Amino acid sequence: MLSALHIENIAVVKSLDVDFSYGMTVLSGETGAGKSIIIDSLGLLLGMRADKELIRSGEDRAEVSAVFEGLPDSATALISELGFDSSEGSIMISRSVSTAGSSARINGRAVTLSVLREVSGVLFNIHGQNDNQQLLDPDNHVEIIDSYAKNSEIRGEYSEIYREILHKRNEIDSLRRDRREQERLSEMLRFQIADIDGARLKRGEEEVLEQTVAKLRSMEQIIKCCTFVQKALEGSEKTRGAIYLTERAAAAMDNVSDALPEAESISERLNDIKYELADIAESMSALYDFGGEDPSTKLDRAEARLHTIGRLKKKYGNSVEEILDFRAEATARLSDMENADGRIEELTAELEALEARANALAKSLSERRRNLSRELTKKITETLAFLDMPKVRFDVGIEKTEDFGATGKDCVEFLISTNPGEPLMPMAKIASGGELARIMLSLKNVLNECDGIDTVIFDEIDTGISGKTSRKVGIKLKEISAKTQVICVTHSAQIASMAHNHFHISKTEVDGRAETRLRLLDRDGREEEIARILGGIEITEAQRSAAREMIADGENYR
Fold first, then answer.
1. Are strands 513-520 and 501-510 parallel, antiparallel or unpaired?
2. What CA–CA distances, in Å, run from 424 to 137, 241, 413, 431, 442?
3. SS3 call for 414
């Protein structure tokens, strides 16, 4: 249960500390006193959006914290699973809001908002007027019946398979989509592959061809220069070449080596030069040797080959390597397309297996919903009769759908008839605000037994109802509080007089600024507050007497 709440710097609340007890607690006060601030603060602990405008004017930070004690087993198991210590049987959750953003903590340890929501969601919930409106949306009805039927485990397993079914279907549709376009693309890929294959490209050949063309285009100059070098080294009939002269120079050094010791090493160096020059002269022939083939023919063939490569580069890549890579990718894509039918068959078989599993789970969900809906209908109808809707007929409409949906193969919608002789109709078409409030209270009363949450907060459950019906709503809230802590914000004297604990919310001026205060009322204070709610500009003794009688009557239900 919620045992303590601290609110700081939120709207007109400067600092507020409240200790709560088991049973039914009521919060009442004048309109605008700050009741909604307390609800908004608790909403922050549920992970709701942190609006910076909530921060009290002139402050840069606001905070809400709450301590929960006597944790239910479901909450203890989850808290332990998330790594928090609950051995003391209590836990503290907090939320800070600043101009820079918001942060959350559990037992002083920083957590993400998703973790905060997960933990606070098993500790308490808030029922407000928006929840009444949610009853008008049939999408929420299946969630209510599943909560009552405790279908969470089956729903979780079904949801995983449903996501896989959607994925498989999308993949199959993608493969089947626009077969003409795939055929056109296949033809184009085949042409591109044949176009590349026709050239018989080899990696690295472009560089070799470019070198060959450069050599052939300089053929005359190469022959002229190489011949000159060869003659300069080897000599001719009329002149001596460098090789002969170097040899003679080496011999001359040999002749004086006895008298000049350095001459021997010079002679050896000259001989080395002679051998090197001889090798160079011999290599000249190979440099201007074009293999016996006509150089012009060879040049034409090399240039034609480069032209072919250039044509392919314009279409498929900037180099032979990129062209061949393109060809490999095209082959892989073509293979995928040609194997599409096989892949479709494979995916279809997988889809059929998934759908068989999903059908079994959807059937189980449907059976549980239909079986439990009769029990739920009976309990809600009994509660509504107590809440002054004795002629109402309530039913859970469940229709089977052809295909799978996110929650199975059922379309669930609450149906109601509020007047005798009228047919059952969707709730959105019939129910008034007061009727919605009573229907929601009936659902909360029934679901309270199975959701395992120890604290339920009702924000103005009395909207749209008054008099005797309000009294019965108060009785029902008190019945719920026998098993669950109930905190109720109300403007109804009939409801407030049923409470075990009654807080009064007021707004006062402190140092020129408005501040919200919260005060636990004693017996006299309760009588005065309930007399105020009963009406009148001035509180009369008759109103006080009525308030005393209502409180005494409420105590009979303890």
1. antiparallel
2. 16, 122, 11, 11, 18
3. strand
**Residue 499 reports pLDDT greater than 60:** yes
Q: Which of 211, 186, 181, 191 is nearest to 316 (CA)?
A: 191
Q: pLDDT averaged over the chain?
A: 86
Q: What are phi and psi of 539, to 5 degrees?
A: -75, 125
Q: Which residue has the higher pLDDT, 432 or 116?
A: 116
- The secondary element (H helix, E strand) that includes residue 544 is helix 541-555
**What contacts 556, CB < 8 A, 6 or more positions away?**
none
d(CA 297, CA 294): 5
What would the mean pLDDT of 84-112 be, rounded to a whole number? 88
SS3 555: helix
Among 101, 105, 103, 8, CA closest to 59: 8
| Token output for 368 | 């549980």
Tokens 């498929």 map to which residue?
316
C-alpha distances in Å from residue 474, one per residue of 481, 492, 519: 10, 9, 21
Q: Which residues neighbour 368 within 8 Å (Cβ) at sequence distance 6 or greater?
A: 149, 151, 154
Q: What is the pLDDT of residue 482?
A: 86
Residue 314's contacts (CB-CB under 8 Å, 6 or more residues apart) are none
Residue 173 has pLDDT above 70, yes or no: yes
Degrees to nearest 5, angle at CA 146 with 145 and 147: 90
Structure token pair of residue 68: 């929960």
Report the distance separating Cα 126 and Cα 40, nearest Å. 10
More confident residue, 129 or 542: 542
pLDDT (0 to 100) of residue 348: 92
pLDDT, tens digit (0-9, with 9 covering 90-100), for 274-290: 899 989 888 887 776 66
pLDDT value for 390: 83
**Predicted TM-score (pTM) of this structure:** 0.64
- Please state the rounded mean pLDDT for residues 25-34: 86
DSSP state of 422: P
Calpha distance 132→432 (Å, rounded):
10
Contact yes or no for 299/216 (Cβ under 8 A): yes
Question: Which tokens belong to 401?
Answer: 């759908």
Q: What are phi and psi of 430, to 5 degrees?
A: -125, -50
Collapsing DSSP to helix, strand or coil, 136 comes out as coil
Question: What whole-number percentage of the chain has pLDDT above 70?
Answer: 95
**C-alpha 284: how far from chain center:** 74
* CB 382 within 8 Å of CB 443: no
Distance between CA atoms of residues 516 and 221, nearest Å: 104
Question: What would the 3-class secondary structure string for 16-83 be?
Answer: EEEECCCCEEEEEECCCCCHHHHHHHHHHHCCCCCCHHHECCCCCEEEEEEEEECCCHHHHHHHHHCC
Each residue's pLDDT tens digit, 514-554: 888 899 999 999 999 999 988 867 888 888 899 999 989 88
E strands, 429-549, where? 455-459, 485-489, 501-510, 513-520
